[in-house]
């Protein structure tokens, strides 16, 4: 008996398998979905691009702060008045054959090596390295009027660089190329010691700080030329023409007590570098002749070692050479050591009255 409800029909039989409605994406849906996917991809690409741009900007600022970014700077914006140059007789260098060769190279191939600039206290761009390149471009622009020579490719240093570092950077490339004479290197040390912005006032000590990378023998020659230039002043008219050994020998002769005033008078009267060097050689020859004719009742020079220190003793001079940085020792400590040294000398030898 079939059970029927009050409406007169029985329950419907459930289908054997449930049927699902087939839903297919229509053209509009497909277009919307594709647009959404494209928008998502574009958004991700933009986010990644922004990240890359931020990283590039950070790297650029770091490179700029470190002076690794090259700039094209108008020559008119560059000055050469703040830092003394490491070359003597700049006019001669500017008109030399080598300058014409550099100009020809720049004219044909352009400026290949950048110069280095820094800003002085007033914000003016000043030349640190590359005086020959700057001069060559200035001459080419003056001669041709070509705008291609009106600017210079340059690195601009960070403002935090110290004054002494600027001197070191200036001489560094020329020293490495061995393009500076001993007289020029000595002149830089003298000028740097006179610079109020540097705490070192002793030219001899300045040699060690400026030319720390050079062999100690070269630094010794530079110190000899520091003494030579200081002792003879402007009367030594062609210091670049003085050979290394000649200059060192004259300096040593002057240190040992030879009269500098007579030599300066003779140098003042010279009219060429050859005459000047002949006077210097004659000064040495006369000094040697006087030494040979003077009876010697004691050694003129004595050398010995005390620990790791080498001591050289002459008349009027006692020189101590060691690896210690004497310039870094406090002045009061040095004075105390010298006073003890002087006291010990006078106690042991009554004839010693001064150092």
UniProtKB/TrEMBL annotation:
InterPro entries: ParB/Sulfiredoxin_sf (IPR036086). Residues 43-53 have a biased composition (Basic and acidic residues). Residues 1-57 are annotated as: Disordered. This is Chromosome partitioning protein ParB. It comes from Roseobacter cerasinus. The gene is repB_2.
């Amino acid at each position: 008996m079939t059970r029927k409800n009050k409406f007169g029909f029985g329950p419907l039989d459930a289908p054997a398998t449930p049927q699902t409605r087939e839903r297919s994406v229509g053209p509009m849906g497909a277009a919307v979905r594709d647009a959404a996917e494209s928008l998502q991809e574009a958004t991700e690409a933009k986010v990644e691009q922004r990240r890359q741009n931020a990283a590039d900007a950070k790297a650029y600022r770091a490179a700029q702060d470190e002076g690794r970014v090259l700039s094209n700077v108008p020559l008119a914006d560059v000055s050469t008045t703040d830092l003394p140059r490491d070359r003597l007789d700049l006019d001669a260098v500017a008109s030399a054959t080598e300058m014409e060769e550099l100009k020809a190279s720049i004219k044909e191939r352009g400026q290949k090596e950048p110069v280095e600039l820094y800003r002085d206290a007033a914000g003016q761009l000043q030349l640190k390295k590359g005086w020959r390149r700057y001069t060559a471009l200035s001459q080419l622009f003056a001669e041709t009027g070509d705008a291609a020579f009106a600017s210079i490719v340059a690195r601009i240093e960070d403002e935090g660089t110290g004054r002494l570092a600027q001197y070191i950077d200036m001489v560094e490339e020329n020293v490495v190329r061995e393009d500076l004479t001993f007289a020029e290197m000595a002149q830089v040390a003298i000028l740097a010691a006179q610079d109020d912005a540097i705490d070192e006032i002793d030219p001899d000590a300045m040699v060690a700080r400026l030319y720390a990378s050079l062999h100690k023998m070269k630094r010794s020659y530079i110190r000899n030329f520091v003494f030579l230039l200081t002792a003879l002043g402007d009367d030594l008219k062609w210091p670049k023409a003085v050979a290394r050994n000649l200059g060192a020998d004259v300096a040593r002769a002057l240190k040992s007590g030879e009269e500098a005033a007579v030599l300066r008078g003779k140098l003042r009267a010279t009219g060429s570098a050859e005459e000047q060097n002949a006077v210097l050689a004659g000064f040495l020859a006369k000094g040697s002749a006087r030494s040979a004719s003077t009876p010697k009742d004691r050694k003129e020079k004595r050398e010995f070692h005390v620990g790791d220190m080498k001591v050289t003793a002459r008349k009027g001079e006692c020189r101590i050479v060691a690896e210690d940085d004497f310039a870094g020792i406090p002045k009061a400590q040095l004075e105390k050591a010298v006073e003890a040294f002087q006291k010990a000398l006078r106690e042991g030898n009554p004839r010693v009255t001064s150092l």
